[in-house]
Amino acid sequence: MNIAIIPARGGSKRIPRKNIRTFCGKPILAYSIEAALKSGCFKEVMVSTDDEEIAAEAERFGAHVPFMRSQKTSSDCSSIVEVLIEVITEYEKQNIYFDILCSIMATAPFLTEKIIQKGYQLLINSKVDSVTPVVQYSFPIQRAVLIKDERLIIRWPENYSLRSQDCEPHYHEAGLFDFGRVDAIKKEKRLPCSHASAIIIPESMAQDVDTEEDWKLAEFKYQYISGDRA
After folding, report:
1. Mind listing the pLDDT tens digit for each residue in 154-213?
2. CATH classification for the domain delimited by 2-133+172-202, as one of 3.90.550.10, 1.10.3720.10, 3.40.50.2300, 3.90.230.10
3. Are the C-beta atoms of residues 196 and 132 closer than 8 Å to each other?
4. Domain map of the chain by residue range?
5. pTM above threshold 0.90
6. CA-CA distance, 27 to 18, in Å (whole number)?
7. What is the residue-wise DSSP string for 184-214?
8. Residue 190 burial class via C-beta count within 10 angstroms: exposed 0-12, middle 13-18, buried 19 and up
């Protein structure tokens, strides 16, 4: 069986109450829940939270909250993998076992069921233990610069004469989800796992929402994309 786990604690600091803040008409958490449900990939779609208000909103949009997150995994220092293993362990106490899990970000309004389905198909049709959506860096990192003591420093001087088109593409995680095989996650205690693959998505489909500026930009992008789809 497969489970979607959406970690959504109540203690976000940079944007207070971020996980249930209204984003283009509904709580941002709702987008992740709806995409997971529409994908048809999961027997269970649950939200792991320590917050009663978040739990109520999660259930309102169709997710399950069968138990609350522990105090240990609700701190700033706890990792997502600790949360995932805690969830899997709680289900196993009830004799409910899952083969595959998908950790979905609570703040992922650009996530669609098609992206989830694509990641799932790659996982089950390959020999890897996890799959993560990634986005290509818009500028070659080979030509990165640093600022130290108010001085501009070329990070890799040997690459600075390279043309952009001659630089090998590099990617970063899109901040949408991670699919993984439960046995591998429990063994390695990490996600992505050591044997991982990726699906490449366009930059327009990903946006961090860690600051107020991020939030405004994400809403602008979402409205633009929604209008374009219409």
Report:
1. 999 998 888 888 889 999 999 999 999 999 999 999 999 999 999 999 988 888 899 999
2. 3.90.550.10
3. yes
4. 2-133+172-202
5. yes
6. 9
7. HHHHH--SS-SSEEEEE--GGG----SSHHH
8. middle
